Automatic annotation (TrEMBL), chains A, B:
Gene3D superfamilies attached to this UniProt entry: 2,3-Dihydroxybiphenyl 1,2-Dioxygenase, domain 1 (3.10.180.10)
Name the UniProt record assigns to this protein: VOC family protein
PANTHER family on file: METHYLMALONYL-COA EPIMERASE, METHYLMALONYL-COA EPIMERASE, MITOCHONDRIAL
Keywords: Metal-binding
Lineage: Bacteria, Bacillati, Bacillota, Bacilli, Bacillales
Pfam family, one: Glyoxalase_4
Gene Ontology biological process terms from the UniProt entry: L-methylmalonyl-CoA metabolic process
Organism for this UniProt entry: Paenibacillus thalictri
Domain VOC: 10-149
Keyword Phosphoprotein listed: no
Record GO terms (molecular function): metal ion binding; methylmalonyl-CoA epimerase activity
Length: 152, 152
């Protein structure tokens, strides 16, 4: 595989899986002395077009975002439908799930990674952009997420 | 507990546990198109004064550091002696172990955290500073590491 497929090595986000986003968000807010940002829920499959391991999935998650220096810490409380969030939480328990990078050219990058033996785990759309989780567990020991913003 | 005991919310480092630091370092170097930084080993207990759960431990680890944007990604391959590294690797498998923050006033901060129900897991000295891992799993779902540099 071509080196530096992502075109960046700047970690933009750390994602942490939790069972109770309200409780853990408040714990972060208290610990770091910042405001509780509240949570939002990912869009339904009709608009998010969520796919997990190649199959359409109804999975959604509650998300809360904290600004921690130059990066974002994301808390994720998944629902019961199949997703990398649900699977990883069931297998590993609460804790870090991914590191994320802001990229351009999602389709080409995902194809290059898949060609290099790093399969797409899950993808979806959100207002203003899209994400893809790549199965980099074997090589990097953590899941990598690609984040692409629409051109303004 | 007082809010914002750390005095910062800037994540300085992410630590990832691995079984084979040479293999995983090379995988990171290849993936991100950067130089393999090589690894170093933590000092022996005589100089590191390593303590794990209140007991002196001979534990050492091989460490490799990658600069990823404004933060450091640390790969950690622990030896077989008791440590938070060994315990977490045995329980959770390879993957993220901690997020680290640069702080001042290590003793006071550790005491304040312990008073707030977040026990010291492990501590040690290194050339130019010291570290402490805090058991924040219950509340924050990830271990927090404090890093203090000696005044220059």
């Amino acid at each position: 595989m071509e080196k530096n497929v992502l075109g960046t090595n700047v970690i933009a986000q750390i994602g942490i899986l939790v069972h109770d986003i309200e409780k853990t968000s408040q714990a972060y807010a208290d610990f770091f002395g910042v405001e509780n940002p509240g949570w939002s829920i990912t869009a339904a499959v009709e608009s998010a077009q969520t796919q997990y391991r190649g199959e359409r999935t109804e999975a959604r998650a509650k998300l809360a975002f904290f600004k921690m220096g130059s990066l974002q810490l994301e808390l994720i409380e998944p629902d019961e439908h199949p997703s990398t969030w649900r699977e990883y939480l069931d297998e590993h328990g609460e804790g870090p799930h991914h590191i994320a990078f802001r990229i351009e050219g999602m389709k080409d990058k995902v194809a290059a990674l898949e060609g290099g033996g790093m399969p797409l785990l899950q993808k979806g759309e959100y207002t203003g952009g899209r994400y893809a989780y790549i199965d980099t567990m074997e090589t990097l020991k953590v899941i990598v997420e690609l984040l692409e913003s629409d051109k303004k």
